[in-house]
Design goal:
Elements lengths: L1 H20 L4 E10 L10 E4 L5 E3 L5 E8 L1 E8 L6 E7 L4 E8 L12 H9 L5 E4 L1 H6 L9 H5 L5 E4 L5 E4 L7 E5 L2 E2 L18 E7 L13 E7 L8 E6 L3 E11 L9 E11 L1 H8 L10 E13 L5 E15 L3 E16 L6 E18 L2 E21 L2 E19 L5 E21 L5 E12 L4 E13 L4 E12 L1 E3 L13 E3 L18 E15 L2 E14 L3
Parallel strand pairs: 1-7, 11-14
Antiparallel strand pairs: 1-4, 2-3, 2-5, 5-6, 8-13, 9-10, 11-12, 13-14, 15-16, 16-17, 17-18, 18-19, 19-20, 20-21, 21-22, 22-23, 23-24, 24-25, 25-26, 26-27, 27-30, 28-29, 30-31
Length: 569
């Protein structure tokens, strides 16, 4: 009830501020920035009102919002590397919100130099401690195995990330085990994003728009895991013309198709729709005995198949509705002695809603995903495990001058099944079901002269039904701009989750992973006394400094502390 009261109070204050604001002689301009050739949103690009200090960067949906602008005539401009600058003359009226779409056109001119201001603005106004943004262009620049750029290979070069490719491509991020990292694609939870060989992920690079990696200290809008978050967003697909890509190498073959269902027409108040889909299959188990016979005449017994599809509908004001579906399969057969395989499938829907004359943007999602894994050996009975369930949530983001406030609620339900046989052949089985309800709020504001101080307090509250317990998770982030080129930053928080893995990290090689929810029976601490709760818990603290050394070159140094206070095995 406390969180409901807090959210209700916040909504009332927001409504009161909007009423007062309408009489202040100020207005807003907001909208989306798109690629003129494809209709895809352009993320993290600068949007500014010329002749003023009003400048922002677009978000992951290409959305921007410039608030508290004195009524009058202005020139709105947007620029991005590889595109011509677009300028639009507009009139901002008192107490009104002007919705404006911007289309950027690609150019082929060779420029001597260019300064990217949106990235610098973001560094000075966003906390983003222990956060890394990855774009497809960055992934393709990294030398890759078989000439096939992949997120799995890029993640392995990030600081604080340790990969164990011989254990199914598992990633240990800043001390946390794989079960403690949450992975999402378009809001859908992915329980195993990496194939057995450890070189390829289930996320096709050509589908990606952006990937955000939070290795610690992330704020209250993310929950459910106690170590790290990988949040991937795919493209909507070309809204103007059909296209595709077909490729093959010694490892695998793939095909990517995209195109419009309802073509985008600039300047018309009409609905547009597009699709994008990919299919990838590996034949390494068949090509390796011939191509890599100098390593092992038996070859590499790995194979996988990935399929992913997305359908997008976008309205004239930028509101959108997405439908996604996927299936990923993985197999490894070792000389007919053992067979390890897993299958993951699911889908979901997500939306972004832009109300006409409101200072808010609403987004939400509803998804279902499942993961089944098995290990069959000739001298032992099979081991199987599965985990699956639904996730749904809705978020509200309110934009203010020099601040924004985000809050939301999430509901999820999960089933875990685990089965194995002990050395004397007795079957041991554990089936569990649990639901979780979580609510969060996060506030970001800039303070002081020239907005030198950025504060980002947050709070997340979770209720775990199977444990009949609440978890209060305060989060906090801050950044101080020493000058235009150097910044101090820090973040801290408490984190909980209700999933555990049956895999021991002491095993040298162990492909099989069983999944369970937290035990319902009372647990004892190292002192022999009962613990107050059975939640998997951790505390993070991160302190860092970042500096722009020269144009196009910066340095980021962080020290972090993670304490995993309650862990069940």
């Amino acid at each position: 009830m406390n969180i409901i009261r807090l959210l209700t109070t916040a909504i009332l204050l927001i409504g009161l501020s909007c009423c007062l604001y309408a009489q202040s002689g100020l207005g807003d301009v907001r909208g989306f920035v798109y690629d003129q050739d494809t209709g895809e949103p352009i993320i993290f690009t600068a949007v500014l009102l010329q002749g003023t200090n009003h400048a922002v960067a677009t978000d992951i949906n290409g959305f921007f919002s410039i608030n508290r602008v004195p009524a009058g005539n202005y020139t709105l401009s947007s620029t991005y590397v590889g595109y011509d600058t677009t300028r639009i003359v507009l009139t901002i009226k008192s107490g009104e919100i002007l919705n404006q779409k911007i289309y950027l056109k690609k150019h082929n001119l060779l420029l001597e130099e260019i300064e990217i201001t949106s990235k610098k603005d973001e560094k000075q106004t966003e906390v983003r401690t222990s956060a890394v943004k990855i774009t497809p262009k960055q992934i393709t620049k990294l030398p890759s195995v078989g000439g096939e750029p992949d997120l799995a290979q890029y993640l392995q070069i990030l600081p604080g990330v340790v990969s164990t490719g011989d254990q199914g491509g598992q990633l240990y991020i800043r001390g946390g085990s794989p079960i403690q990292t949450r992975v999402m694609i378009d809001g859908v939870t992915i329980y195993n994003p990496f194939h057995s060989l450890g070189l390829f992920s289930v996320i096709e690079t050509d589908l990606l728009r952006n990937v955000e990696i939070f290795t610690g200290g992330y704020n209250a809008n993310y929950g459910g895991r106690i170590s790290a978050v990988i949040d991937a967003t795919t493209r909507d697909g070309n809204k103007k013309r059909f296209g595709g890509k077909v490729g093959a190498n010694t490892f695998a073959a793939k095909a990517v198709l995209e195109g419009p269902i309802i073509k985008l027409k600039e300047g018309e108040n009409a609905l547009s729709s597009s699709y994008i889909a990919s299919f990838k299959t590996s034949y390494l188990d068949r090509t390796s005995p011939k191509i890599y016979d100098y390593i092992d005449t038996v070859g590499l017994p790995y194979s996988f198949t990935d399929a992913y599809a997305k359908l997008n509908f976008t309205t004239n004001n930028g509101s959108k509705l997405n439908f996604t579906g996927f299936r990923f399969d993985d197999d490894a057969i070792f000389q007919n002695l053992s067979e390890y395989s897993w299958t993951s499938w699911g889908g979901g829907t997500s939306f972004v809603l832009v109300p006409g004359q409101s200072k808010s943007i609403i987004d939400g999602y509803l998804s279902y995903s499942t993961y089944d894994i098995s290990l069959r050996e000739t001298d032992q009975k099979p081991r199987t495990s599965s985990i699956g369930g639904f996730n749904g949530g809705i978020n509200f983001t309110n934009y203010f001058p020099r601040a924004d406030f985000k809050y939301g609620i999430e509901v999820s339900g999960f089933t875990t099944e685990f089965q194995f046989f002990n050395p004397i052949g007795v079957k041991i089985e554990e089936n569990q079901y649990t639901t979780e309800i979580g609510g969060f709020m996060k506030y970001r504001t800039t303070l002081g002269k020239n907005d030198r101080l950025v504060l980002e307090p947050g709070l997340r509250v979770n209720y775990y039904a199977s444990l009949s317990s609440f978890a209060f998770e305060p989060r906090f982030g801050m950044k101080y701009n020493i000058n235009n080129a150097m910044r101090l930053k820090a973040a801290a928080g408490l984190y909980t989750q209700n999933f555990i893995s049956t895999k021991s990290d002491r095993d040298i090689v162990n492909l099989f992973t069983g999944f369970l929810t937290g035990p319902e029976q009372a647990l004892l601490g190292i002192d022999g006394q009962p613990l107050s709760n059975n939640q998997q818990r951790a505390a993070h603290a991160v302190v860092g400094i970042e500096s722009d050394i020269a144009r196009g070159f910066d340095i980021n140094v962080e020290g972090y502390y993670k304490r995993f206070g309650t862990l069940s095995r």
